[in-house]
Amino acid sequence: MAEKRKVEDELIPSSNEHVKKVATVTSVSEDAIRERIVILLGYSGLGYHGVQINEPLKTIEGDIVHALQDLGYLKKEKIDENKLVIARSARTDKGVHTLGNLVSINVFIQDSVNPSVLREQLNEKLNRQIRIWDVFKVHKYFNPRISCESRTYEYMIPSFALIPPKESTPFFKKSQKNLNREPENELESLLLSSTAKARSFWEQVENKREELKKEFEKDPETFTNPFTGIFPEKPIPAHIKIPNEAKLKKAQKLADHYYCMHYRISEDRLQILQQILQLYLGRHNFHNFTVTQDPKASSNYRIIESIECGKPFVYEQWEWIPVTIRGNSFMLNQIRKMMAHALMVIRSCARSNVLTKSLSPDVSMNISKSPGHVLLLKDINYSSYNKSLQNENHFQIDLVKYRDQMEKLKEEVIYPDIIHLEKKEKMFFSFLAYADQHTKGQFDYLFQ
Fold first, then answer.
1. How far apart are CA 301 and CA 280, in angstroms?
2. pLDDT reading at 150 higher than 90
3. Are 102 and 69 in contact (CB under 8 A)?
4. Are 137 and 160 found together in one domain?
5. Domain boundary among 122, 148, 174
6. Domain co-membership, 269 together with 365
7. Does the pLDDT of residue 77 top 50, yes or no?
8. Active site residue: 31, 63, 70, 93, which one?
9. PANTHER family, from UniProt (predicted)?
10. Is 445 assigned to a binding site?
11. What band does 229 get if pLDDT is binned at 50, 70 and 90?
């Protein structure tokens, strides 16, 4: 089963129960004809279990099929499910966002589809998280996955993810071996010096924690948490009394979160991240970055065409580092594990060759995956496909004309969803805390 889900952008099996259900409730005339259309769209993945139909879970394609059902583009009578043939440029998993993706599907209509009308109808029917940029007809053999040459993703790293771990954590204690060694190259030298400076961050946090403790000791009953309201919290029933000690512990924990939120990355730390990420460039075996049964299988090889750190920016007080990565295709969890591995190499001051070793089919590493709610499919490339259509009357696939609409979706929907979820669920904090407190051997490859 893992192998079937391995490639992130593989075809959806159209013979699932959800498609059967929606394909039997729509009223379309018996003389309706079948046309293959492509829907170009963007969406926020918040609350969705990916793009692929997976009944009974809420998915992007599930919502689209429901909308087409309501608009009368699917037959009422039971049809051959294989004729629906849903496919896409790239498959996005739970919580992952998209600025531009293609979904192709067969619809059943009496007259030829009017793309502009259908686009407007879908935008009216779908919720604001899903926006349709365009609809166009293609020949019946068009496969958006196969025709797509490359995909470009953006991964948003919160700057605080590059802060070294607290000195009291097991992760830091294991890192002592790395911190006390002699650097073997310029990158390792820069990493060691930058880590020494970055560790001063925790001094100001500890000062704040001590300040909170003194305020608490003055009068535990009237102690007020100064960070209340900054992070969403579950309401506490009025009849439940919170122990005073718990009040202090909570305030100190939120102090950690608050100071991390306001952390700003240094130039040398950003330079290190860029140099570490550059080690992924080229064709490599990414068996440690996905689910696989055979490390040496040819399907584990992928080409990373480019990977760049963008300029850090502040959004609602949080600083984020956009990492743009382009490749021919990506496997399940690959990007999330790539980002997690780079972060752990930096936070542990590991040897720089730890990353290159992870790309060897002869080395096995149990690499964690970083949170997925900050992953965004940014672009899809159909250059060769477009060139093949220059002498034909077919729609060429180019996202440039939709950039303004895409930026609006990103600024008004996707970014707010990312921030809201991080504030509420603290997913990156939890991911880093898990690594820092881990006492078993999962991360031992960083300290060899």
1. 12
2. yes
3. no
4. no
5. 148
6. yes
7. no
8. 93
9. PSEUDOURIDYLATE SYNTHASE, TRNA PSEUDOURIDINE SYNTHASE 2
10. no
11. confident
- Identify the domain containing residue 23 by its residue range: 17-148
Give the pair of three-digit tokens for residue 215.
């305020």
Largest CA distance in the chain: 82
The tokens for 153 are 């993703």
Active site residue 93: yes
Residues 184 and 80 in one domain: no
pLDDT at 314 > cutoff 90: yes
Q: How far is the CA of 338 from the CAs of 201, 344, 374, 379, in angstroms?
A: 26, 10, 14, 19
CA end-to-end distance (rounded Å), the chain: 34
| Residue from 433, 424, 431, 432 nearest 231 by CA | 424
Residue 313, CB half-sphere, CA atoms under 13 Å: how many?
Answer: 9
> Do 44 and 58 reside in the same domain of the chain?
yes
- Per the structure, how many domains does the chain have? 3
Within this chain, do residues 142 and 73 fall inside the same structural domain, yes or no? yes
Tens digit of each residue's pLDDT (9 = 90 or more) over 373-391? 999 999 999 988 888 877 6
Q: At what angle do helices 60-70 and 115-125 cross, to 10 degrees?
A: 110
Peptide bond into 56 cis (omega under 30): yes
Q: How far is CA 431 from CA 84, 321, 344, 434, 438, in A?
A: 39, 17, 11, 5, 11
3-state secondary structure of 150: strand
Query: Where does 17-86 have alpha helices with state H?
Result: 17-22, 60-70
- Residue 48 and residue 182 in one domain: no
Angle between helices 334-348 and 170-179 in degrees, nearest 10: 70
pTM of the predicted structure, to 2 decimals: 0.88
| 3-class secondary structure, 338 | helix
